[in-house]
């Protein structure tokens, strides 16, 4: 079982694409595996014949365990590998020897010393451009989990683009772009039993593990501000009238854009806590919490401060769709510098979100509601929005967070301020 | 700003420097009465007289040697070769005398001399007259080598070359003499050793000099139109010393490079540029650096074969696509 995401510790074999006896080529999909994040393809690392399948569909095995054996045509596998522990040195004798590197997943003692056919390539060596290696090193990404798109599978810049250091971190509450996902809670069993035990899926396990590393150790504090959305609503209506069939700008797009722009003016809030240092980001990559069946995930809108509203909207929708179909690549859900969680569509007035470490802040967006407000001595109805920012006090102090929130509020209350 | 041809920009530089310093004189085949094989010295004999605009016999080694001697005696000669193909005959004076006298005299004899003339292929001049010599010349410690691509750079670099106290090789081009561009009037000097970004870009760096600057700019235009690729064109201008910092800065920005030159690939200028990139910009590289050069053969006389042997915008576009992983 290969590590298919930076934090994967075990994988559930969802579906075999090859059967025992099938010829396979290096690079072909052997099976689909559910990791802690997504369903990913398990790729054959050598040419040969799929001699033995060691894991059945639905079974979960730790990373490093044997899932299958690929042998050269006509070659006999020497040892039984079913449910074998991680590879151990080859048994002696019998003309068998341990396959080097290339047969890492195939367990011990199955490769004929006579060497029928070419030896498999060394899969432990990842081919990557110097730039890609540097980017991966800086972002803490394991190159082995990145699929290279260059010649011979070379990992190049575009494969790593914006992929950054940590594994996905779930935000406190799922936000949704447009449609609501199906409820993850199973319907009552027809048997009438008083309860049902459902094993944790990989994503729920990750959420459980990650969240206690957030609210527990991180000293959170919360700042709430109520924003008048009248002018943002007018701006949105005007833009949408002008756009006609060419697209629609949503409030979420405006909030994402304004948040990103406000972060460029408050670098202190666009930061990662890194134990012995704080990394202040010069780029703004906004994580966007998306509810998926059985959990949530935070795909990332890269350089959100530089993108036009329509592009943000388009990208948010695409990422949300991919998240729901569990087809996000690791580079699409890692590396955010700040996150936004929006529960507006669930009619939530305000809430507090759990920080997505190592980020230092997250913004919780409530619903836009008409309220009676005093303007120039008169009570008038105004559309209002409550924003709550969760801050990591190790990075952000009260006044720092408040200054950011004030800039953001100013931009939403007067969208022209975004041009400043 | 006035628009001048490359030829007239060189003429302006020569005239201004001869007016500025009475020690500057021009010598070579047909530079006087005929006013230059390519009319670079038009009007100079009339203005400065036969003591400072000197016609020579067809004897490159001889007049190159007279130039070196004159420089030793304190003058500032500008030696014109009808083409660098003929200057091969003078290489002993250039390489063994001009480049080494300062060193061998323990610093007593600086050699402030300029050797200039057209370099590289023109059209259908055959294998012996269609050669790019910058790889040879840049190999020699003691020489500086510049290769201006535009009229403004031609003026600015020739003036710098004449004022330099070391031997400077100025590589011009028969196909460049008629090209036009804006040229600043009066005192306009381009320092030797500085490359110039002729077009800014983000995605790939095209490194070039002399005639290949036009090839690279054409390729950059095609890349922008057809591939929406933003190519940066870096004109080296000076081949020795080479502007390592400019090369590195551009590759650090784009992560990919194609190096273009008129010369042959083996031990060419591009090989030196690639060395700089791999050493100074290793961690910025996203793809191996590719080179576009003349085919590794004597230049064919046949028109179609000659066209195929030369660097072209299509070849640069193809190389750029490869380093961008677009193929």
Give a structural overview:
The complex is a heterodimer of chains A (420) and B (327). Chain A has helices at 130-139, 157-160, 202-212, 230-243, 251-265, 309-324, 330-333, 398-413; strands at 10-16, 23-24, 29-34, 39-43, 48-53, 60-62, 68-71, 96-97, 111-112, 220-228, 271-273, 278-280, 286-288, 290-292, 295-297, 300-301, 338-342, 361-365, 369-375, 378-392. Chain A is α+β, with helices and mostly antiparallel strands and 420 residues long. Chain A has three domains: 10-121, Beta Barrel (OB fold (Dihydrolipoamide Acetyltransferase, E2P)); 126-161, Irregular (Dihydrolipoamide Transferase); 202-419, Chloramphenicol acetyltransferase-like domain (Chloramphenicol Acetyltransferase). In chain A, a hairpin with a 4-residue loop joins β11 and β12 (278-280). In chain A, α5 (251-265) crosses α8. Chain A is elongated, with a radius of gyration of 25 Å. Chain B has two domains: 3-182, Rossmann fold (3-Layer(aba) Sandwich); 196-323, Rossmann fold, CATH 3.40.50.920. Chain B is 38% helix and 17% strand. Chain B contains 13 helices and 14 strands. The longest helix of chain B is centred in the last third of the chain and has 16 residues, at 212-227. The relative contact order of chain B is 0.12. The interface between A and B is small, with 12 and 8 residues.
In a nutshell, what does this entry contain?
The complex is a heterodimer of chains A (420) and B (327). By secondary structure, chain A is an alpha+beta fold.
Keywords:
heterodimer; A: 420 residues; alpha+beta; OB fold (Dihydrolipoamide Acetyltransferase, E2P); Dihydrolipoamide Transferase; Chloramphenicol Acetyltransferase; 8 helices; 23% strand; elongated; B: 327 residues; alpha/beta; Rossmann fold; 2 domains; 7-stranded mixed β-sheet; 13 helices; globular
Q: How large is the share of residues in beta strands of chain B?
A: 15-25%
Tell me the span between the first and last alpha carbons of chain B. 43 Å
Give the topology string of chain B: H per helix, E per strand.
Answer: EHEHEHEHHHEHEHEEEEHEEHEHEHH
Secondary-structure element string of chain A: EEEEEEEEEHHHEHHEEEEEEHHEEEEH
The SS-based structural class of chain A is alpha+beta
Query: In CATH terms, what is the fold-level topology of the largest domain in chain A?
Result: Chloramphenicol Acetyltransferase
Total helical elements of chain A: 8
What is the level-2 CATH architecture name of the largest domain in chain A? 2-Layer Sandwich
- Structural category of chain B is alpha/beta
The 3D shape of chain B can be described as globular
As laid out across the biggest beta sheet of chain B, the strand order is 3-2-4-5-7-6-12
Overall, the morphology of chain A is elongated
Work out the helicity level of chain A.
10-25%
Largest sheet of chain B: 7 strands, mixed
What value does the Rg of chain B take, in angstroms? Answer: 20 Å
The overall number of domains of chain A is: 3
What radius of gyration of chain A results from the CA coordinates? 25 Å
| Count of strand segments of chain B | 14
Tell me the domain tally of chain B.
2
């Amino acid at each position: 079982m290969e590590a298919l995401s930076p934090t994967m510790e075990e994988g559930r074999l969802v579906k075999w694409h090859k059967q025992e006896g099938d010829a396979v080529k290096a690079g072909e999909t052997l099976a689909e595996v559910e990791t802690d994040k997504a369903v990913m393809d398990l790729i054959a690392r050598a040419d040969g014949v799929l001699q033995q399948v060691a894991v059945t569909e639905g079974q979960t095995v730790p990373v490093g365990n044997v899932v299958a054996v690929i042998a050269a045509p006509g070659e006999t596998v020497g040892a039984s590998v079913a449910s074998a522990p991680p590879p151990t040195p080859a048994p002696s004798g019998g003309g068998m020897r341990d396959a080097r590197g290339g047969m890492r997943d195939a367990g011990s003692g199955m490769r004929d010393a006579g060497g029928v056919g070419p030896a498999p390539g060394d899969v432990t060596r990842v081919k990557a451009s110097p730039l890609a290696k540097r980017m991966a090193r800086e972002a803490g990404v394991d190159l082995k989990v990145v699929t290279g798109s260059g010649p011979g599978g070379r990992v190049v810049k575009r494969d790593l683009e914006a992929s950054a250091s940590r594994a996905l971190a779930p935000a406190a509450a799922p936000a949704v772009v447009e449609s609501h996902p199906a409820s993850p809670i199973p319907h009552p069993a027809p048997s009438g039993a008083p309860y049902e035990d459902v094993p944790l899926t990989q994503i729920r396990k990750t959420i459980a593990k990650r969240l206690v590393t957030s609210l527990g150790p991180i000293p959170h504090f919360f700042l709430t501000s109520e924003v008048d959305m009248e002018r943002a609503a007018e701006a949105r209506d005007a833009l949408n009238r002008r756009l006609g069939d060419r697209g629609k700008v949503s409030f979420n797009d405006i909030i994402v854009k304004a948040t990103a722009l406000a972060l460029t003016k408050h670098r202190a809030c666009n930061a990662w806590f890194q134990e012995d240092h704080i990394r202040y980001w010069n780029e703004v990559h906004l994580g966007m919490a998306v509810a998926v069946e059985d959990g949530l995930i935070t795909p990332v809108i890269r350089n959100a401060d530089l993108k036009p509203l329509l592009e943000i909207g388009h990208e948010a929708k695409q990422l949300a769709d991919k998240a729901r179909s569990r087809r996000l690549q690791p580079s699409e859900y890692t590396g955010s510098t700040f996150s936004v969680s929006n529960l507006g569509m669930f009619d939530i007035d305000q809430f507090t979100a759990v920080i997505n470490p190592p980020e230092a802040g997250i913004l919780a967006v409530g619903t836009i509601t008409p309220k009676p407000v005093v303007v120039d001595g008169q009570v008038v109805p105004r559309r209002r929005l409550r924003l709550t920012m969760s801050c990591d006090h190790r990075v952000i102090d009260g006044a720092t967070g408040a200054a950011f929130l004030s800039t953001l509020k100013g931009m939403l209350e007067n969208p022209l301020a975004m041009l400043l | 700003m006035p628009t001048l041809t490359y030829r007239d920009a060189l003429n302006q530089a020569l005239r201004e420097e001869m007016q500025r310093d009475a020690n500057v004189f021009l010598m070579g085949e047909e530079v006087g009465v005929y006013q230059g094989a390519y009319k670079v010295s038009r009007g100079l004999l009339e203005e400065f007289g036969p003591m400072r605009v000197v016609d020579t016999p067809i004897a490159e080694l001889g007049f190159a040697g007279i130039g070196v001697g004159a420089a030793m005696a304190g003058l500032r000669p500008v030696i014109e070769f009808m083409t660098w193909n003929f200057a091969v005959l003078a290489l002993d004076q250039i390489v063994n005398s001009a480049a080494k006298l300062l060193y061998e005299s323990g610093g007593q004899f600086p050699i402030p001399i300029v050797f200039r003339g057209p370099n590289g292929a023109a059209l259908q001049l055959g294998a012996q007259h269609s050669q790019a010599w910058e790889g040879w010349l840049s190999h020699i410690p003691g020489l500086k080598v510049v290769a201006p691509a535009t009229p403004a750079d031609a003026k600015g670099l020739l003036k710098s070359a004449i004022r330099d106290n070391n031997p400077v090789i100025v590589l011009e081009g028969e196909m460049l003499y008629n090209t036009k561009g804006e040229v600043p009037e009066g005192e306009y000097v381009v320092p030797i050793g500085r490359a110039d970004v002729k077009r800014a870009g983000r995605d790939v760096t095209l490194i070039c000099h002399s005639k290949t600057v036009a090839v690279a700019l054409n390729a950059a235009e095609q890349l922008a139109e057809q591939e929406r690729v933003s190519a940066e064109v870096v004109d080296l201008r000076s081949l020795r010393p080479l502007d390592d910092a400019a090369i590195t800065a551009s590759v650090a920005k784009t992560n990919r490079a194609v190096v273009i030159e008129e010369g042959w690939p083996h031990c060419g200028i591009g090989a030196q540029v690639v060395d700089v990139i791999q050493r100074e910009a290793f961690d910025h590289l996203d793809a191996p650096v590719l080179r576009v050069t003349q085919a590794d053969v004597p230049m064919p006389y046949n028109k179609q074969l000659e066209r195929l042997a030369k660097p072209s915008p299509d070849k640069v576009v193809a190389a750029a696509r490869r380093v961008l992983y677009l193929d």
